[in-house]
Amino acid sequence: MGRWPGTREIVAHPNFIVVYQVADRIEAISVVHSRQNYP
């Protein structure tokens, strides 16, 4: 589960986290650097 409600996260690379949601399809919401602070 992701840090935002209704989202999931996957580590795509040691430095990047992909935030996505699953509904009828997978939708990438954001790509965040792992050292960046976010909710």
Automatic annotation (TrEMBL):
Cross-referenced Gene3D superfamilies: RelE-like
What name goes with this protein? Answer: Addiction module toxin RelE
What is the species listed in this Swiss-Prot or TrEMBL entry?
A: Vreelandella boliviensis LC1
